[in-house]
Amino acid sequence: MAALSTPEVSTGELVLSLRGIDKNFGAVQALTGIDLDIYSGEVVALVGDNGAGKSTLVKILAGVHPQDGGTITSDDKRVSINNPADSNNLGIATVYQDLALCDNLDVVANLFLGHELGRGTINEVEMEKRSWSLLRQLSARIPSVRIPVASLSGGQRQTVAIARSLIGEPRIVILDEPTAALGVAQTAEVLNLIERLRERGLGVVLISHNMADVQAVADRIVVLRLGRNNGEFKVADVTYEDIIAAITGASDNAVTRRAQARVDAAGAPAATAGSRPDDTALPEEDRP
Amino acid sequence: MTTPTSTPTPSNPDGPPPTETVRLAAVAADLQDERLIQPHGLGGTVRAFGKRVRSGDIGSLPVVIGLIVIWVAFSLLNPNFLSSTNLVNLTLQCAAVGTISIGIVLVLLLGEIDLSVGSVSGLSAAILAVSFVNLGWPLPVSLLASLLAGVVVGLLYGFLYTRFGVPSFVITLAGLLGFLGLQLWVLGSTGSINLPFDSWIVQFAQQWFLPDWLSYVLVVLTVLAYAGQLFLTANRRAAAGLSAVPATSIVVRSVFLLLVLGVPTWYLNQTRGVGAMFLLFLILVVVMNFFLTRTRWGRSVYAVGGNVEAARRSGINVTRIYVTVFVLCSTFAALGGILAAGRLAAANQGSGGGDTNLNAIAAAVIGGASLFGGRGSAFSALLGILVIQSISSGLTLLNLDSSIRYMITGAVLLLAVIVDSLSRRTRVSHGRA
Fold first, then answer.
1. Are B202 and B275 in contact, with CB atoms under 8 Å apart?
2. Of residues A212, A166, A220, the one with CA closest to residue A6
3. Hey, are the CB atoms on B240 and A128 less than 8 Å from each other?
4. Where is this region: Disordered (chain A) (predicted)?
5. How far is A84 from chain B (nearest CA, A)?
6. Would you say residue A168 lies in a domain?
7. What value does the mean pLDDT take over residues B241-246?
């Protein structure tokens, strides 16, 4: 419950690695051979069209559905995530799109819901103190923590939901469409917040349909298309058009196949289909 | 305190000329946002209160005003209404149904309902009378058996609700009929069983009153405990760098509480005084309020009532909360049945029947427990039952027929629900839902 502790995680360390994840719902193969690496101190954006399998992948990480095939590795150990508790124990915190806040309770009560401090009786003073400390660390602009969550704006509610995920000292925070329902200024606030999570050394998985947000805040973009990996980019050297092409599948044409053939001929490790030769060709250990 | 960069202290009145950091540090951690409207002084507190009321966060204000209106109206119609004798009777009438109403507040907090509390209270009265009088069990064993019946009923409701997801409305409607039948079956052919007058349960409910000195000692102790707890909290908040209630405000509140408790106690002491049964009811309300506001269980109850999915995702054992609340509700109903039987010195086929059920539910709603879940407090039961019994007592004094009594109580209930819905709508439009 050390919501105040300064981040100790060094950045750039591989915290969670997914390999060949399969998932099917009846006759529908929702995910096929998905690979995903999550590094500390890095924001990885998971993008894709509707039905690409983003939410399914998140649910596997959050322990809502177990995967059907593939391996999950955490700190070089194979792990399985069968329920939400397993996910929590691995240090994964998920902020769902609907936020799951109790409107009738105040900010402090929502932040510590299910993890109240104090023995026997609730220690409100300590909880309020830590709430302020946590919100200050996130530079969150919430006027009072003793007002019901219902009276906060959409961005502030999102802030509370994100801050709540940090109470359990997670290593990975998964944000499902955090800016979907927000205005311009509030979106900017949430993006600032995501950057602060990265500064704290957390691995952040950002799911979004908004390419502007993704390009503004993400370090790496993983594209899913029809349940498969369809490219992995570094934001620094990719254009909007490239991402859209990977999302929609427009990059799967003669030109890209020819570029791929040249990379393969050069002997470099094979990049994921659809990616450009000069971005993700880095070997695993050279990653930041 | 000596160095400007030391830990923030809430007040630093005569320090060096304030730099920016000192100025910030001098403001409590929770009052630094410049958008926060801060009340200054007593006038500011009053204005802040008025603002809160206008935005629909009315709390128990309507019921207190309602109670004053009712009392003024009835005392104008019949001066005997506000006599000490009548008010002592009023408190005794409150205890049994009020106890049942505490349980109703709990289920309402979850956004559920228990329609069978009347039948369960009748069943427990029947079990008490039959086991104690007909079977000759020792009184404590009979009381325990009656309470246990409530526990079992609550467990059954909790199981049905959490296992099959049947709406509580339907489960408890079935319970209303089923346990009424069980009550009649337990009573058997006799139909009515008198409890012996010298048994202590009857004495407790009818004859036991606090000695004057003891009632005043209790009032003073309560006020001291209240003030002490406020002072402790204020000190701890100040130590943590948060805004704290000023000492003058604590004194004002404590004096107010002293008047609210002391004056009625003095008035009741003019005749028989404070009944032991009423005191038990007050203690139950205070204890329940403590559990609801200060423990994880209470916080979980409000969370489940506010957003059950959020509560589940944050790791609260939702099933356990539902089961404990249904068990508590039925057990409070059983206890209410015991108190009613003690006061009547009998259990009969009509025990827990008539308007017991609806009075208990109406009291909780009139007292401010929202039907939509997540809002209300244990004190809702106390305030609500005072309103209901005041109306009932006043109309009886006016020699009005029970037909009129029912209609007026119904109208008051309707008014309370309208106030609840209106304040909910105002809260939504003021962002306080």
1. no
2. A166
3. yes
4. 259-288
5. 9
6. yes
7. 85
Lowest mean pLDDT among A62-66, A168-172, B19-23, B225-229: B19-23
Given an 8 Å threshold on Cβ–Cβ distance, is A116 in contact with B314?
no
pLDDT in tens, B91-117: 999 999 999 999 999 999 999 999 999
Query: Is residue B231 domain-shared with residue B310, that is, in the same domain?
Result: no
Asked if the structure places residue B406 within a domain, the reply is yes
pLDDT of residue A169: 82
pLDDT > 90? residue B305: yes
What are the tens digits of pLDDT across the range A249-283? Answer: 776 667 777 777 887 777 655 444 444 444 444 44
Query: Chain B residue closest to A103 (CA)?
Result: B306
Nearest to A144 among B30, B299, B303 (CB): B30
Residue B223's Cβ-side half-sphere holds a number of Cα atoms within 13 Å equal to: 18
User: Out of A129, A145, A151, whose CB is closest to B431?
Assistant: A151
In chain B, the number of structural domains is: 2
Please provide the distance, in angstroms rounded to a whole number, between the alpha carbons at the two ends of chain A.
29
How far CA B213 is from CA of A72, B210, B279, in Å, comes to: 72, 8, 15
Nearest residue in chain B measured CA to CA from A127: B240
Is residue A2 assigned to a domain?
no
A49–B contact, CB cutoff 8 A: no
> CB distance from A116 to chain B under 8 Å?
yes
Position B23 in a domain: no
**For the segment B138-197, what is each residue's pLDDT rounded down to a tens digit?**
999 999 999 999 999 999 999 999 999 899 999 999 999 999 999 999 998 877 899 998
Please name the residues in contact with B155: beta carbons below 8 A apart, sequence gap of 6 or more.
Answer: B323, B326, B327
The answer to the question of residue A153 being in a domain is yes
Q: Which of B230, B251, B274 is the last residue of a domain?
A: B274
Cα distance between residue A128 and residue B348, in whole Å:
53
Residues B200 and B245 in one domain: no
Look at the block and give the residue holding tokens 């109580």: B409
What per-residue confidence (pLDDT) applies to B59? 63
Specify whether B160 is located in the same domain as B266: no
Give me the residue from A96, A116, A152 closest to B296, CB to CB: A116
Q: Are residues B319 and B396 in the same domain?
A: yes
How many CA atoms within 13 Å lie on the side-chain side of B75?
11
Within this chain, do residues B178 and B289 fall inside the same structural domain, yes or no? yes
| Neighbouring residues of A235: CB distance < 8 A, sequence distance ≥ 6 | A45, A214, A215, A218, A219, A220, A221
Q: Do B339 and B365 reside in the same domain of the chain?
A: yes
ipTM surpassing 0.85: no
Q: Please count the structural domains in chain A.
A: 1
Q: Is the CB of B241 less than 8 angstroms away from the CB of A129? A: yes
pTM: 0.82
Instruction: Select from A98, A108, A113 the residue whose CB has the most chain B CBs within 10 Å, as the one to mutate to test that interface.
Output: A113
Looking at B256, B274, B292, which one is the last position of a domain?
A: B274
Shortest distance between the Cα of A132 and any Cα of chain B, in A, equals 7
| Host domain of residue B224 | 210-274
Contacts of A143 in chain B (CB under 8 A): 33, 35-36
Domain interval for residue A280: 14-286
Asked if the structure places residue A7 within a domain, the reply is no
Residues B141 and B253 in one domain: no
Residues B267 and B368 in one domain: no
> Nearest-CA distance from B1 to chain A in Å?
20
Beta strands in B294-333 (DSSP E): none
